[in-house]
TrEMBL record:
Keyword set, alphabetical order: Nucleus
Family according to the record: Belongs to the Integrator subunit 2 family.
PANTHER family hit by this protein: INTEGRATOR COMPLEX SUBUNIT 2
Entry protein name: Integrator complex subunit 2
Length: 1183
């Protein structure tokens, strides 16, 4: 028996020559090397080749010449002379016999009973018998492997262990496999050879003689291998065999290692191949071993990570063995670590004088070319200890600490190394075990603090380790240990299980020796802001430190002003937005409004001043040619700050009132100068870069400025394409063009059309000129197209500067008397009293384009007024309640005014405001007296309302005769659209307006023009129950139009109720009131019957009752009238027999001659008869 280590293996040179069939290289091999390859070379020389080229013929001659001097060739030639077909048949028969016998070796077809040992038989046998002996032994091993179910065994075989015959046995084995490949698949043969001594040597020879099978054999061995190879003898033998194969063919070693990782088998083999790997070009930065192990533990494949971690854990449980692959790996890593340490670095801890000396041997710096490698080694040891559970030896821990406390050069890689070292100290504080090591760490941390600014400036990086030190110190002070763990894991780039209890020693060092809270706050405020801060800058920045200090209220506690730092950082921002900016603003606002403690209510931060805010928006409103020097990101962040501040101020009113503290809010004048809508419009196009800022601004806007979030504005907003810059020279520069509006109509129109080509932002400089001359558009003779173009431009400007535009427009459209007095309204005036908008020049009410603008402003200011009053109520409620409580101390019988009263008063004011606006608008819909005088009683009301008279001069000429397509009709449509929106937004407004009532002449317009009027059906029963006769009459008249417009089941039920109420009132009303009630309501019965024919009987009954009462009153006066009751009853019973034409003629004639001077009861009788005739007429027409 011989050790395989003493055997000669095939060299990489020889294997490559065989693989490429390089005859020249083969000729250069020594005799011992050539001896191992004879089986393949002899077969190559004797077998008929597939390649018939002259080149191969010459190579074959060289091979024959090479073999001619080797004695062992004759024995191999003799082996190839055997009848392999017969041999294969016998072998298959023996396999069948073995299966039947259950694997017993009692009988053999290949080999008869052996009289001597297997070795002696092999020595004395002829070539055929040698083949039979080897084949029988190999098949027996293969069968046993197949039946072993994966359990490893080592078979003692005299044939494979005798050192004298190893080469002859190898020849036989190679010939057998080459000639009987179907019987002896090379993968199964290789698997069987693992179970005999010297198996890896035989395997290498077998593969060397069939070089194309290298990858196939390796993959088969890996697939059949163990998940943890060092756990068993079989795994170690398999690893060693594959290692020898890869040493024979080193160019494929990395591919074999990739197979190991892919299959998650034999982790030790992967490490061993990495240890054996010698790259042609050595990478100075990171060694192959560090790269390989780091890739396994820090890669994205969790299965691979778990598999290799198990290899580390299991390897530590065994005794330390020099032959163990794991210990070889650890030794190599330690050697690499020591190699990059500064030469003079030792465990000696110098005193203070040594520390000040730059030539101190204990503190020599890490060389620049070693920094990247040192960082990679640190991360690898973090992964080995944190993920794989490696327990470092004392030697490893000491050398690691020496490396971590090294001082790198001031480069970006050096900054990264210091950050990693610091986080490794936090993650594995057990590395610091002795007082000397603890002192070394403290001095290194002190060096970090001292050198942080130099490193940041010299390395040219924004995220330095100084911010991380500050952040960790703040976390320790606020006891946020989980945040420290998250920070460490994020910096190291791996998830490590760190127990918070393990950080107690580090916490003591940080909070008591290095960073007291006062030092932290004083240092933080001096840290420079990050220039051009954006999401592209990763790592831990000053903003993270300031955010944590604000959260812990450290600045207010130690009276350190942070306002200037925050403002500077907000001014140094760009897109894409950094995720920490919005939380920073929120926590800053909270620190302004909420004191750090109740005992010290003055301990708050200072807000950003109004002047600083104004500077940010300077030049943005388009007043001058100056452009703002701040980015859109800064402006949006300041806007977010202001809106959030105001919202938080209202939300904390109660808390602030209890502390008798009232922070100052920003003035309305400041808010008026900020182009909020313009900024929001720009933010809309930058949503991807701004993250959640756009949605946060919309939320604040909807809460505090609902008039800037009207739905119609969002729907109508469209991007207007720009035009050539040269066009700007032709644009409007002053209002002089409007002064000659009549004479220069075409020129003005051309200028306005050019303006429509501009984008909304470019129109801002011309807003004042457009609005200030709007009053001139009301003069007679102005082209309608000019007014419509101004309307279009106004709507575009409304998308970017609505609030300022509204104020300028309201002031421009004032009546001439107010203009002469130069009375100017402000934004606050209009929010307090939105009805100022409707106190404009009366000519606006008959100019549809300008009326459209007026209605838009009215709707906006009504919404603004609601928000203003709500904010005012919240702002003053708590403080007034506190003041009332103080003033009432000691006074009895003076209870506080309940809060619900204030809320009710506010709601009442808003309701009065809305209803007044609706009533004014309804009044605008009425034609003026000069338009109505020509309306005859017989003309339908819808035409009367739409009619226009000739008394308006040039204004009347613009309206079409006949009335429907007139300015009045267009204004009515615009008003109806607005009223519809108001009724839908708050149905209570509709109820209030109809309880107040309005002219009956407008009912056809409102019912037909306002689609939401059907909601009146809900409260008409309540209106009918009112005691005022006027409201009851209005309810019935409204119901008659609603029934015609909405013939619904609900309308039918309300109509039945109305008829019932009319019948009840007939019995209770006095004679004068009866006349006043029934004269206007009786014609409504016609509409009821027309909409709902089933009501005919009820209406007839009511009319007869009214007629009886009226006729009775007439008879008491001894007045002789027609037998009304009999005629009514007859009409009710036989309506089809009535000749309508004669009745109508006689009725009209009687009315014209007698109605004016008739008694009221007589008039009522005639009205009843006329109602009868109208009902019958409408019913017969329907038939």
């Amino acid at each position: 028996m011989v050790d395989s280590a003493s055997l000669q293996f095939v060299s990489p040179y020889a294997f490559e020559a065989m693989q490429k069939v390089d005859v020249a290289r083969l000729a250069a091999l020594s005799d011992p090397e050539l001896r191992l390859l004879l089986p393949c070379l002899v077969r190559m020389a004797l077998c008929a080749p597939a390649d018939q080229s002259n080149a191969w013929a010459q190579d074959k001659k060289l091979i024959l010449r090479l073999l001619s001097g080797v004695e062992a060739v004759n024995s191999i030639v003799a082996l190839l002379s055997v009848d392999f077909h017969a041999l294969e048949q016998d072998a298959r028969k023996e396999q069948q016999l073995r299966h039947k016998a259950g694997g017993s070796n009692s009988e053999s077809i290949l080999v008869s009973q052996l009289q001597h040992g297997l070795t002696l038989e092999f020595e004395h046998s002829d070539p055929l018998r040698r083949l039979r002996l080897a084949l029988s032994e190999l098949l027996a091993i293969m069968n046993k492997v197949a039946d072993s179910n994966g359990e490893f065994f080592l078979k003692s075989s005299e044939l494979f262990e005798s050192p004298v015959y190893l080469e002859e046995v190898a020849d036989v084995l190679c010939i057998l496999q080459a000639e009987l490949p179907s019987l002896l698949p090379i993968i199964e043969v290789a698997e069987a050879l693992l179970h005999v001594r010297n198996g890896e040597w035989f395997m290498c020879l077998l593969v060397a003689n069939v070089p194309d099978s290298f990858s196939e054999v390796c993959r088969g061995l890996i697939k059949n291998g163990e998940r943890q190879d060092e756990e068993s003898v079989g795994g170690r033998r398999r690893t060693e065999a594959l290692r020898q194969l890869c040493q024979m063919n080193p160019s494929q070693a990395l591919n074999i290692r990739a197979m190991v990782v892919e299959e998650c088998h034999l982790p030790g083999l992967g490490v061993a191949l990495t240890l054996d790997y010698k790259p042609d070009m050595a990478d100075e930065a990171v060694s192959p071993l560090v790269s390989y192990v780091s890739g396994l533990l820090l890669g994205t494949n969790g299965k691979v990570r778990t598999w290799f971690s198990m290899f580390i854990r299991n390897g530590q449980q065994r005794k330390r063995e020099s032959s163990s692959v794991l210990w070889q790996m650890r030794r190599q890593l330690l050697l690499e670590l020591v190699a990059i340490l500064p030469r003079s670095r030792s465990t000696h801890v110098p005193n203070d004088t040594d520390m000040d000396s730059e030539s101190s041997s204990g503190y020599s710096g890490l060389r620049e070319e070693h920094v990247v490698k040192a960082s990679a080694l640190l991360r690898l040891y973090c992964a080995l200890m944190g993920i794989a559970g490696l327990r470092p030896t004392d030697e490893e821990a000491e050398q690691l600490l020496q490396l971590m406390t090294s001082r790198p050069p001031a480069t970006p890689a050096g900054v990264r190394f210091v950050s990693l070292s610091f986080c490794k100290l936090l993650a594995f504080p057990t590395l610091v075990s002795t007082p000397e090591q603890e002192q070394l760490m403290v001095m290194w941390l002190s060096w970090m603090i001292k050198e942080e600014e130099y490193f940041e400036s010299a390395a040219g990086v924004s995220a330095s380790f100084g911010e991380m030190l500050l952040l960790v110190a703040m976390y320790f002070h606020s006891n946020q240990l989980s945040a420290i763990i998250e920070l460490v894991c994020s910096t190291l780039g791996m998830k490590i299980a760190i127990k918070p209890s393990s950080l107690s020693k580090m916490k003591t060092i940080f909070t008591q020796e290095i960073f007291t809270e006062q030092v932290v706050t004083a240092h933080a405020v001096r840290v420079a802001v990050t220039n051009n801060l954006s999401a592209n800058i990763t790592g831990f920045l000053p903003i993270h430190c300031i955010y944590q200090l604000l959260r812990s209220r450290a600045f207010t506690k130690h009276k350190v002003s942070i306002k200037d730092w925050i403002f500077r950082q907000l001014c140094e921002t760009t897109t894409p937005l950094h995720t920490q900016l919005l939380p920073l603003i929120d926590v800053y606002i909270n620190s302004i409004l909420t004191p750090a403690s109740k005992t010290n209510p003055e301990a708050t931060n200072q807000p950003i001043t109004e002047q600083e805010i104004l500077n940010v928006f300077q030049g943005l409103a388009g007043v001058g040619k100056a452009r703002s020097q701040y980015t859109i990101t800064t402006q949006l962040l300041i806007l977010y700050y202001i809106l959030s501040y105001e919202e938080a101020l209202l939300a904390n009113t109660k808390t602030l009132a209890l502390m008798q503290k009232k922070p100052k809010s920003y003035s309305p004048a400041l808010m008026d100068q900020i182009p909020i809508k313009h900024l929001i419009r720009q933010a809309q196009g930058l949503q991807q870069e701004l993250g959640g800022l756009h949605s946060a601004l919309l939320r604040l806007l909807a809460t505090n400025y609902p008039h800037l979030c009207m739905v119609e504005d969002w729907i109508s907003e469209e991007e207007v394409t720009g035009t050539l810059p040269l066009l700007r020279k032709m644009l409007l520069t002053s209002s002089s063009s409007f002064q000659n509006v009549l004479s220069g109509g075409p020129g003005l129109l051309r200028i306005l059309e050019h303006l429509t080509l501009l984008s909304a932002g470019d129109l801002i400089p011309y807003a004042e000129a457009l609005t200030s001359s709007m009053g001139l558009l009301l003069e007679d003779g102005v082209s309608r197209r000019i007014i419509q173009t101004v309307n279009k431009l106004w709507m575009v400007l409304n998308t970017v500067m609505p609030r300022k535009l509204w104020v300028m427009t309201v002031n421009a459209l004032q009546p001439l008397v107010k203009l002469l007095r130069q009375q100017r309204y402000t934004q606050n005036d209009l929010m307090v009293d939105p009805l100022i908008v409707l106190r404009c020049d009366s000519r606006v009410f008959r100019c549809p384009p300008l009326m459209d603008i007026t209605l838009h402003m009215l709707n906006g200011y009504l919404l603004a007024s609601k928000a203003y009053l709500n904010a005012h109520l919240k702002e003053t409620a708590e403080f007034e309640r506190q003041a009332q409580t103080v003033s009432n101390l000691g006074l009895s019988g003076q209870p506080d005014t309940p809060e619900v009263t204030r809320e009710e008063l506010k709601n009442a004011l808003l309701a009065a405001q809305d209803s007044a606006a609706v009533q004014i608008l309804l009044e605008v819909c009425l034609p003026p007296p000069q338009e109505d005088v020509q309306s005859a009683p017989g003309i339908p009301m819808r035409k009367q309302v739409g009619d226009t008279g000739a008394g308006k001069g040039a204004q009347g000429e613009r309206e079409a005769e006949g009335g429907l397509l007139s300015d009045l009709r267009e204004v009515q449509c615009l008003i109806c659209c607005l009223l519809h929106q108001m009724f839908i937004a708050d149905p209570n407004i509709a109820k209030l307006v109809h309880f107040q009532g309005y002219p009956q002449a407008l009912l056809p317009l409102t019912v037909a023009g306002i689609p939401s009027m059907h909601i009146c059906l809900d409260f008409i029963p309540e209106l009918l129950a009112q005691p005022q006769l006027e409201k009851q009459i209005f309810a019935i008249q409204l119901l008659s139009h609603l029934c015609t417009q909405y013939a619904l089941p609900k309308s039918l039920s309300v109509a039945r109720l109305a008829i019932s109420v009319m019948g009840t009132l007939l019995t209770v009303l006095t004679r004068a009131k009866r006349f006043a009630f029934f004269m206007p309501t009786l014609p409504c019965l016609v509409s009821f019957c027309k909409a709902f024919p089933p009501l005919f009987d009820d209406v007839m009954s009511l009319l007869i009752q009214v007629g009886q009462v009226s006729a009775a009153d007439v008879t008491t006066k001894a007045r002789d009238i027609d037998p009304l009751i009999a005629r009514l009853q007859y009409l009710g019973q036989k309506p089809q027999e009535i000749r309508l034409s004669e009745s109508k003629y006689s009725l009209r004639k009687r009315s014209a001659e007698e109605l004016g001077r008739a008694d009221p009861d007589v008039q009522l009788c005639y009205q009843i008869e006329a109602t009868f005739m109208d009902i019958i007429s409408s019913s017969t027409q329907a038939l």
